Amino acid sequence: MSAALRDRVEQYLSAAFLDKEIPSRLSSAMRYSLLAGGKRLRPALCLAVARACAKDNAEEITEALLPFAAGLEMIHTYSLIHDDLPAMDDDDLRRGCPTCHKAFDEATAILAGDALLTNAFSHMARADAPAPLLLEAMRLTADAAGAAGMVGGQMLDLEGEGKKLSLEELRILNEKKTGALLFNACECGAVLAEATSEQRRAARCYGSELGIAFQITDDILDVVGDEATVGKEVRHDAESEKATWPALLGLEEARRQARLHCEAAERALEGVFSGPDADFLRETSRKLVNRTH
Ligand code: GRG
């Protein structure tokens, strides 16, 4: 199920931004990063939650929401391009390949990110869902990606460099920087599938716990991973004196916390979602905490 879902997202994305009206260097840079082998986690979460809510209409809802789910991946890709820039994390490698500004140039990478973010909303608006629900999901997404969400989290991340953050400050930073797009993907899947309030709450709680487990694992990989497997430069957090879960808790406790949040994510689904799409959501949280890249 999951591989098939990812293939559909992949197909949708590979047809995007081929419009002759787009200057070819811009289109090449956007497609370079968009089609560079991401896990497609956010669209997969959105579609899996929607399918779990829609049950008998899983196929129809997948087709209907594909443009929305693809839009989430465009926003995620923009955030990675901008995060890699010299003024931010200054990374040369992403998914084992040169980052967008290395493959092109800094100005082109900034514009590629800008265009992916802006055009993402045009793709989302093409989803086949009742207008008020689509409007609600687009508003949630703009808030999750914006100043009080991911962009705000990135600001806290930059300000936190070289400072000693408390665990609570780190949790808030992570919830915004990494968590917001993840729980938003789950919540939007529920909203667009006309979920009950119980389903919507469960989807958001699952995504929120998954987001913390995901970030803790990312921090751990920066300490224990090697560049070839992780696909990006490692030991970056220590170099930029960032507060991380292993730095605050030690590796073993950070690993334990990742497992606990993964279990909490699974518990959020209990009694609310069942069937193959709920199984996919459970597998996803387990895979994310056990991943090596
Ligand atoms: C620049 C506005 C702005 C925000 C950047 C996304 C982000 C905020 C920073 C990235 C820093 C980072 C590595 C955070 C860890 C979580 C994360 C987003 C990892 C990458 O996501 P995956 O694993 O990536 O889903 P793939 O490659 O599979 O698409």
Keywords, separated by commas or semicolons:
293 residues; mainly alpha; Farnesyl Diphosphate Synthase; 15 helices; binds geranylgeranyl diphosphate
Describe the structure.
The protein has helices spanning 2-14, 24-34, 41-54, 58-84, 100-103, 106-124, 131-145, 150-160, 167-192, 197-224, 227-230, 236-239, 245-249, 251-269, 276-290; strands spanning 93-94, 97-98. The protein has a two-stranded antiparallel sheet with strand order 1-2. With 293 residues, it is mainly alpha-helical. The chain has one domain (2-290): Farnesyl Diphosphate Synthase. The mean pLDDT is 94. Helix 4 (58-84) runs antiparallel to helix 9 and helix 8 (150-160) runs antiparallel to helix 9. It has 15 helices and two strands. The structure holds geranylgeranyl diphosphate (GRG). Geranylgeranyl diphosphate (GRG) binds next to helix 4, helix 8, helix 9 and helix 10.
Give a brief rundown of this model:
By secondary structure, the chain is mostly helical.
Distance between the termini: 22 Å
The CATH architecture can be given as: Orthogonal Bundle
Order of H and E elements: HHHHEEHHHHHHHHHHH
Bound molecules: geranylgeranyl diphosphate
CATH class: Mainly Alpha
Question: Helical proportion?
Answer: over 70%
Average pLDDT rating = 94
CATH fold node name: Farnesyl Diphosphate Synthase
Percent of residues in beta strands: under 5%
Give a count of the beta strands, DSSP E runs of length 2 or more: 2
Largest sheet: 2 strands, antiparallel
- The value of Rg in angstroms is 18 Å
CATH superfamily: Farnesyl Diphosphate Synthase
Q: Globular, elongated, flat, extended or rod-shaped: what is the shape?
A: globular
Which strands sit side by side, in order, in the main sheet? 1-2
Low-pLDDT ranges: none
Into how many domains do the coordinates divide? 1
Helix vs. strand class = mainly alpha
Total helix count?
15
